[in-house]
Amino acid sequence: MHAAERERRIFEALRPTGFVSYRDLEVLLDASPATIRRDLTRLEESGQIVRVHGGAKLPETEDAGGPRLLGTSFDQNITQNLGPKQAIGKAAAALCSPSEGVMIDGGTTTLQMCPHLDGLGLQVLTNSLHIVNALLPQAGTRILLPSGAVFREQNIILAPAGEESMPRFHAPRLFMGAAAIGPQGAMQADPVLVAAERRLIDRAEEVILLVDSSKFRSQSGTIVCGLDEIDTVITDSGITPEMAKTLQDAGVKLVIA
């Protein structure tokens, strides 16, 4: 079992109570105590868990402040590669037709679509409170929200896997981001986010991925969807020729903003 898969299982075990014992991890991971100690040490050094007597627990900030997602917070992400993200958001908005319904997944790049949607009279389903706030001043834009818990660091509404939380809504296009993308597909760091995005994908006729070129890298994570499920990727000119060819060979339309 790869390290990324072990980490995913560790966090799945932590989520119900915020604590998991070493004994439970030995059974769950089918790994040696030394391997489990190395995994927990790595996660503790990155601030994602705290090692305690008999096992590991989530940091106190998670216990006190409600559920959190793995990965970089929204506030950290919003300032990274802002120029390319703004260009990508504008190019994505240009794909929207007046009066249609669209789905916009939460993210710092999808947020950049919002200023360019005013006047189109769209109906937008989104799980992002940041996107809601950006769209509220647009009198002609109708906004729909799913049910679920608010994850404050991302300001996003998510429901656990297996729980139906979406309104009865079908859209021609889904605009979504990713923590990373490679030959294996689009990835996210947190399984809860993956489950929510899969529910959106199932309701869309066309999946449009908005990612700046820094996202084309090797990274451990859970695969949201393969390249065969992505119709269009909008990115910036920093994408490598090799990755551009990989996308095109997979039948993905590539738009350079």
Automatic annotation (TrEMBL):
Going by the UniProt record, its keywords in alphabetical order are: DNA-binding, Transcription, Transcription regulation
**What are the residue boundaries of the HTH deoR-type domain, all occurrences included?**
3-58
InterPro entries named among the record's database cross-references = Carb_Metab_HTH_regulators, DeoR-like_C, DeoR_HTH, NagB/RpiA_transferase-like, Tscrpt_reg_HTH_DeoR_CS, WH-like_DNA-bd_sf, WH_DNA-bd_sf
The keyword Transcription appears for this protein: yes
Does the UniProt entry include the keyword Transcription? yes
Single GO MF descriptor: DNA-binding transcription factor activity
- Its recorded name reads DeoR family transcriptional regulator
Give the organism, scientific name: Novosphingobium subterraneum
Classification from the root reads:
Bacteria, Pseudomonadati, Pseudomonadota, Alphaproteobacteria, Sphingomonadales
